Amino acid sequence: MDIESETVTGTILVVDDDEGVRKLLTRWVAAMGYTVKVAPDAETALSVMRGIQIDVALCDIRMPGHDGIWLVEQMRRDHPSVAVVLATGLLEMDPMVSLRPGVVGYIVKPFNREDLDQVIKRGMADRSRLKAEQASGPRLLSAGVLDGIVLSGD
Predict the structure, then answer these.
(1) 93-121 per-position pLDDT tens digit
(2) Average pLDDT of the segment spanning 23-33
(3) Is the peptide bond before 40 cis (omega within 30 degrees of 0)?
(4) How many domains does the chain have?
(5) Core vs surface per residue 88-109: b (16+ CB within 10 A) or e
(6) Positive or negative torsion for Cα 93, 94, 99, 100
(7) φ, ψ for residue 130 (rounded to 5)?
(8) What's 46's domain CATH number?
(9) In which domain, by residue range, is 22 found?
(10) What is the pLDDT of residues 7-18, one digit of tens each?
(11) How far apart are CA 23 and CA 14, in angstroms?
(12) Residue (of 6, 10, 7) closest to 126 by Cα position
C-alpha cells in the first residue's frame, strides 16, 4: 500500500501554553490526517479528555500552573491507554521524565513536520499496544522461574 493512500485515523491532543505553537501543531497534525483537539494548559487538557477518546497527547513540559509532568501523572491515573509525547526546549530529557509509564517519547523544540509525524506514529502504535494490554487484563505470575527465583505453590 502506498504511504500516500493510507488512511490515518486517531485523535491527537495538543497541550501547549503558547498559542502560536498550538496553532502550528494543529495545522501540521490535521494535515497528517488526524483529528486535533487543543488545550492551553493541563487542567483544560483533562477536561477535553473527559469528553472524547484521545489516542496521543502531545504535551509541553513547561507550562504555567500544572506542568506537563503533572499532566502525565493525571493521565496515567484517569486515561492509562493514552500515549504521551512530551515536547521540550531542552536538548536532553531527564530519564526520570522520559521513562514514565505512558510516555512514548519526546520531541525537542523547534522540531519539523517529519519528526512530529514519526513521534505521533510511534505514539499511535504504542496506543494500540496499551489498549490490547488493558483488554487482556492484568498478568498473573504462575509457577516457574523468574530471574533465577523459583516460584511455586508451596
Answers:
(1) 554 454 555 688 788 878 889 989 998 99
(2) 94
(3) no
(4) 1
(5) beeeebeeebeeeebbbbbbee
(6) negative
(7) -65, -40
(8) 3.40.50.2300
(9) 11-151
(10) 568 999 999 999
(11) 9
(12) 10
